[in-house]
Amino acid sequence: MRGSSRASRGGAWVAVGLILLNLIPIVSGSLRLTQLGGGPELLPEAARFTSFPLPVVTHIVAATLFSVLGAFQFLPGLRRGRRSWHKLVGRVLIPAGFLVALSGMWMGALSDLPAGDGPALLVLRLGFGGYMLASLALGIRAIVRRRFAVHGAWMTRAYAIGVAAGTQAIFLIPVSMLLEPSHQAGRAIAMGLAWVANLAVAEVAIRRRGVAASAPRPVADGV
């Protein structure tokens, strides 16, 4: 019971931390939606968003659902039962994840690039977006085959990529302080490192779950 309680507290702190990490993209996305809906211009005008807003709106809404609801998937207590929160929300998260990846790749490849973007960042966006799509597909295949640990591992990787915007905002702070906002190499390196950092944390979490699952459980006295 102590181990279960400790795991629940740990999962709660993980969920809180993930939501806090995603506050920056959630707030900026909300401001962008307000602006696209005819509200005040709270963010700098961007022609690539206003000329064809559908992928922008899709990306913001899907990413918000994916990041917030996905954070609660790390709570062990919500996974119990045949109709648990984990299973019900998973039916929303997987389509949202596909929309996040596809809309992000669409905007990167077909929208006019801002001054700070360049070919290197486009390659990174398409590469990590493709890896997210592959992770989601492999997660679906694993759950169909009832390989729950494999499903959790691939979904964790997909989540790590899908919520990298918060990490990128942090990584871009020193770049904006040291370099011009339009410095393409600096932006590409910072954003690429943010994706890599998220995936590294995901792999550590996956490994720890595997070790915990394989560890022998304590036997109660008298049993």
UniProtKB/TrEMBL annotation:
<keyword id="KW-0812">Transmembrane</keyword>
<feature type="transmembrane region" description="Helical">
    <location>
        <begin position="88"/>
        <end position="110"/>
    </location>
</feature>
<feature type="transmembrane region" description="Helical">
    <location>
        <begin position="52"/>
        <end position="76"/>
    </location>
</feature>
<feature type="transmembrane region" description="Helical">
    <location>
        <begin position="12"/>
        <end position="32"/>
    </location>
</feature>
<feature type="transmembrane region" description="Helical">
    <location>
        <begin position="122"/>
        <end position="144"/>
    </location>
</feature>
<dbReference type="Pfam" id="PF10067">
    <property type="entry name" value="DUF2306"/>
</dbReference>
<feature type="transmembrane region" description="Helical">
    <location>
        <begin position="156"/>
        <end position="179"/>
    </location>
</feature>
<feature type="transmembrane region" description="Helical">
    <location>
        <begin position="185"/>
        <end position="206"/>
    </location>
</feature>
<keyword id="KW-1133">Transmembrane helix</keyword>
<keyword id="KW-0472">Membrane</keyword>
<dbReference type="InterPro" id="IPR018750">
    <property type="entry name" value="DUF2306_membrane"/>
</dbReference>
<protein>
    <submittedName>
        <fullName>Membrane protein</fullName>
    </submittedName>
</protein>
